[in-house]
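ok trying this again, last paste got cut off
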Amino acid sequence: MVGKKISVIGYGKIGQHVVRDLVAKKSIVYVYDKNPKKLIHALAEGYNIINKKYLLVKSDIIFCITGNKSLNEKDIKSIRKECYIFSITSSDDEFDFSKGLKDFSKSYFEPIGVSLIKNNIKIHLVNYGNSINFLHKAVIGNFIYLV
């Protein structure tokens, strides 16, 4: 994580903690939120803020923590390099891929995820875009999938 350009989309309660942890790991962290008050808060805390267009082009890793459709097909197609995307909420809440990503070929990787590949662009959706805490069966185990 040291020196990686990491963007956090969503500066709510969970996003704030993720940003602090990433900064402690010596990552280069950028914050984006649709809410200008949250961006001001992030700036006041000493964090770098970024616009969405720039983060899509420059990030090595993106954490999506909004629960409110942070990325869509157009956003994914704007990514111009290899990028890992982690969702902290469910994929249904975090991503709007309703039209599909037909332009990309898919490849699966271990421990669990899917890579979207087009030309020299590789986008890795960890846990297939589902919340990463589900990788460890969350706190209540497999029952979380019933929700």
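PB: full thing came through this time. The longest strand covers residues 113-118.
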